[in-house]
Request: fold
Amino acid sequence: MMMKALIRKQFGEYFSSYYVDRKTGKPCSKGRVTAKFIGFAVLCLFLCAMFSLQALGLGQILDPETTEALQAAGMAAADFDPGRLYFTLMGILSILMGTFGSVFNTYAGMYLAKDNDILLSMPIPPRRILASRLIGVYGLALLYSAMIWLPSCVVYCILSPAVTPAAVILQALLLFIIPFFVSVLTCVMGWIVALVSGKLKNKSFITVLISLVCFGLYYFICFKFGDFMQTLISNGAAVDAGLNRWVRFLCWMGEGATGSFLSFLIFTGITAVLCIITFLVLSRSFFHIALHTAPAGNSGKAVKKASAQISAGAKSPRKALYMRELQRFTSSPTYMLNCGLGLVMLPVISVVLLINANSFMPAITMLAQTSPLLENALVPAVLLLVGFMAAINCISTPSVSLEGKSLWILRSLPVTGKQVLQAKLMLHVSLGALPVCVSVLLVGIAAGCTPLQCVLMVIFGFLFTVYTGLFGLILGVQRPDFNWTNETYPIKQSSNVLLALLAGWGANLLLPGLCWAAGLIMDPTLSLGLTTALEALVCFLLLRIMNTKSAARFDRL
Amino acid sequence: MLKIEHLTKTYDNQKKAVDDLSLHILPGEIYGFIGHNGAGKTTTIRSVTGLLPFDAGEITIDGINIKEDPIACKKIIAYIPDNPDLYAFMTGVKYLNFVADIYGVDAGTRQQRIREYADLFELTDALGQTISAYSHGMKQKLAVIGALIHDPKLIIMDEPFVGLDPKATHLLKELMHKKCAEGCSFFFSTHVLEVAEKLCDKVAIIKQGRLIRSGTMEEVKGDESLEDVFLELSEEGAAQ
Reply:
């Protein structure tokens, strides 16, 4: 009964945004609920399609001719199983995806949930609270890992000549067992993050740094996937032997997916034991960590720092509002990682492109010469590439909802909605514009654009940042949600963020598209100038809306 | 200092939360506002502070209409809600500096005021901690310091004594008297009738959105205790 109520509460929280209009608190219409679920399904399908390409690349190893060639060359033993290698590697990718995708959700949802206190104050054993939260962790792990595992199974069934009904059944069962293993990893990592964050001073930055290293590794693997495939196909047997030696446990998963019932049982058994151990360890520490993750430490240093800050100089209201936004952003790893990832990714990718320009530019130049339509496509391509990454920065979008229950402070202070919104926009632009402008400049140089084109592209990049900031902010004021219990909701799960992302990508297709189309009938630099002017006009109009309608609406919130 | 004339506020459910309420608060007065849960106290307070739009009536603070110039009004008032949800991501001192920046309090004055009030409420050592680590009472104290930092002419408080320890309650009451002597006015709601009786110059009793009695403490309670009068008035309302 109690557990049922907890699970109902947990899932009610997860799915409330689908069934209830959080602004009015009224149930959504059936049509709206259906539309929300369809939108979500389309997004998942899109990601599955992306990962299918990776599975197809690795699937080359399933070709019997490849195996025969390796065996003929003496590079593979007679018992070399390409199916096992395929599923072991795709399984590892699936586990990585599941783990990195949900570790911070696990941390925020389990240890930082605002209802931890109230639940722990009730006569509910902490184990049950933990179990109800873990069901959510499992659900998220299932979602992320399935996005790779499902396409892998489909590709295997298409490409492999050795598909058996047993293999298909075990693959289907593994779809639900792998997330248990992922949950173990995310719980352990979330637990470590919770423990460490209780002791660290600059924990937000350190958490972000660790996450960025993990993301970097993940993207490095993805980036090098082509080379990796070639190496794998020519050294498949050696890789298989290495995996067998070092991660035998995961090879059992791979073997299980090809139809080996015994391997499947071993993998499932070990996963079950790991789950039980993790649950027991977590349930012992959950009560303590959930109540002590809030930073304390009335240390001498904190007192000294406070004394120093009391004597800090005064700031203008405008700067004070800006600093408040900056403090909020830098205090939350979830906010920084989900809404500011592009700030780091953009310069990194640009530098990589600049360094490797000599290796890909001749091919691009040759490609451009194959058709008159592609002749002037270089500038729009640069804008498209950088814009795609820039649109990921949606710092301004959740900022209104993040005011949450503290909104009364701004409303009772002598500041206007316009001033508040301008501070939020300023944060978005001040953090986002520089990486975008630097990136567009670097990529422009790498692509061999003229100095004038580079200057125009930098202006274009700056205006694009302003556009994404304004659009996200207007959306945030239009559809605010102050009733969250976990900041992950407005930052990650809110439809506003998805809409802002799609609007950013939409504009990113439209504007470079216009630039390219206009370039067919006029000078490419002129078409770039005109597109930039159009973008400036759009920004001006959005700025007007923000300063008038949105500001007035904010004052009434 | 504060003039509320015929204030009426109706929510979406068509229920009148406040109905034709009028109050006048003079400079240097402590005005208590009492009533049952859901009587309309918080609605009135939120309307006065410009947090809630109202349907009819007029509110002026120091002669300035809250609807016409809310920013000018907010510059001379301070508000402390019943449950101060402050910025959990800030430290106490950063929060106070933020509020001081918004009100344009110069560095020297803010330094002196933060030290004075933080020492008074024994919060100085905790100012370096993030607010997320504060207890309810500490947040309440911080909200009080934040409200005093710009030396407002009118302080509006919703249940200010909830969560404060006895010493802090005593200090706040002392501080209210001291500020009143300097010309500052207080308008606050409370359920603690004994405190209201000892502290307030004037009191208003609200029931179901309507003002049922107001005036000086003597006018309202006569020879009885405020608690007796309040209960009598409540029962009269119930009998009607």
Q: What stands out?
A: Chain A touches chain B through 43 residues (CB under 8 Å).
